[in-house]
Amino acid sequence: MKRNKGKVVTTEREFRFEFKAGKQSCVLSVPVEFPVQDNASDLHGRLMLLHSLPCFVEKNLKDALSKFIEEGTNKDYDREAELALERLRTGEVDTDLLTNAWAKAYSDTTLEHARPEEPSWDEDFADVYHDLIHSPASETLLNLEHNYFVSISELIGERDMELKKLQERQSSEMDKVMKELGNTLSDQDVNAVASQHFDTQQVLENKWASELKQLTTIQKQEYQEWVIKLHQDLQNPNNSSINEEIKAQPSQLRGSQEANERLYEEQIQLEESFTIHLGAQLKTMHNLRLLRADVLDFCKHKRNHRSGVKLHRLQTALSLYSTSLCGLVLLVDNRINSYSGIKRDFATVSQECTDFHFPRLEEQLEVVQQVVLYARAQRSSKQKEQPDMPRNGGNDDKSKNIERNPSNILPGEFYISRHSNLSEVHIVFHLCVDDNVRSGNITARDPAIMGLRNILKVCCTHDSTTITIPLLLVHDMSEEMTIPWCLKRAELVFKCVKGFMMEMASWDGGISRTVQFLVPQSISEEMFYQLSNMLPQIFRVSSTLTLTSK
User: How far is it, in rounded angstroms, from Cα 130 to Cα 151?
Assistant: First the structure.
């Protein structure tokens, strides 16, 4: 008898099996260590193979081995039980501690004794907000959110103005330094000035970022406390003054223009809508839209069009805690941050209004980064456990990329951020793509296309009924994107999405959805209408009936 590193008592017993092969008597004798870690069937198979036993003893050997393991295991259990009872009789184990442990284990594993699950603050606030936004108090909620939006906009305007002045001053100083280069100043002096300018700009940006974070934190706390208090007051039937005040409060969304209002340049938005039916026997109706717009237009609150602000904010708020969420696919690189490109622009837009329901974008990205690192570590450990597993070249390239930087994601993978402060979307799917999407030879098995399939599957399983997809898998046009390139890419995406939508019937039972295909703002009208004519040729568009009276 011995103890291993886990301090589990192990014993070794000899297993004997007698059988006859013709007139010759044979005995198989092997040591077996208890407790047996392997499956009895696996151990039986190894004995048959290693000792070249005849096939006619296979069943008898398996029965004898199973009986031997069962009897040996029961003996070990009996011995452990006797030792435990002996310790209890001699007083080595405290009876009170033992009974308390048993009672706790029983109550934790038995449903009737388990404590009811306490609702979290987020769930309570979600229920309260859902009740209020579908009541006459919705106007009051939108007015308060608008006031907070104006405060954030003013702070961002001050930040932008101060950063602009700093950049102009630093540009002027650098011009003077460059004029003196070679006369009284050297390259080291120029580098020192540039380094000083960078440090000064970083300090100023950090200062404004801290102020913006502090203001949004205060607004979120005040807003949530006010919503809870308003809901409690409305539940009180004796408090009729609150209802009268809500009805009498004018809307501030139709108010005057602010002095420092930041206007967004807009081109004429083109769009075409289609109604289609998909399915062989059980047909499902879907709505398709082709739009020419900037991808961030679905996120911005355009205050220069007052009539549309309230409509968009109200519609987004009404469906926030519903089964008809709106999603947007944003094409990003493999780094999980918001430091450059479209990710930086999106982060800037998300800061323009406080999110009263979900964590800030930076906090959500930190959680995603930790999940990615954990998933990479789990995948790496499984690959090390199976080193002899055959791999093709593509998987080798992927594993090399992961080993190079495990914090990055691969093309076709995506992460999700949740928002309540955007204009028309609740969910943003950050789909990772590489430079390969700009080439003209991608296929239906490309990681970006398969990423779209997985995104649509998530939409089906998580109540997202509207999804906006970049039709050309790019957000900006470039020189190599000719008319044949655009037509070929649009045809590929149309056909793939059609196939994915037909799969939806098996994913969600056939729910009507809206899919919006987005093309870049800089695309020509001629190209847009060519894509519009292609769509009904690929999808089955519902025909209209014209009724005339005689």
Answer: 25
**Which segments of 41-148 are extended strands (E)?**
none
Beta strands in 245-349 (DSSP E): 270-278, 284-292, 325-332
The C-alpha atoms of residue 250 and residue 62 are separated, in whole angstroms, by: 84
519: nearest Cα among 264, 267, 263: 267
Per residue in 28-82, pLDDT (tens digit) is: 888 888 888 778 888 888 888 888 888 888 888 888 888 888 888 888 888 888 8
Quickly state the pLDDT bin for 312 (edges 50, 70, 90). Answer: low
What is the rounded CA–CA span in Å between residue 446 and residue 434?
Answer: 11
Contact yes or no for 417/365 (Cβ under 8 A) = yes
d(CA 67, CA 61): 10
Q: How many CB atoms lie within 10 A of CB 250?
A: 9
Residues whose CB falls within 8 Å of the CB of residue 447, separated by 6 or more in sequence, listed in order:
410, 411, 412, 413, 433
What is d(CA 198, CA 178) in angstroms, rounded to the nearest whole number? 17
Q: In what order do the strands lie in the sheet with 9-21?
A: 2-3, 9-21, 24-34
Neighbouring C-beta atoms of residue 429, cutoff 10 Å: 26
Tokens, residue 155: 């702070």
**Considering only CA atoms, which of 500, 514, 414, 419 is closest in space to residue 464?**
514
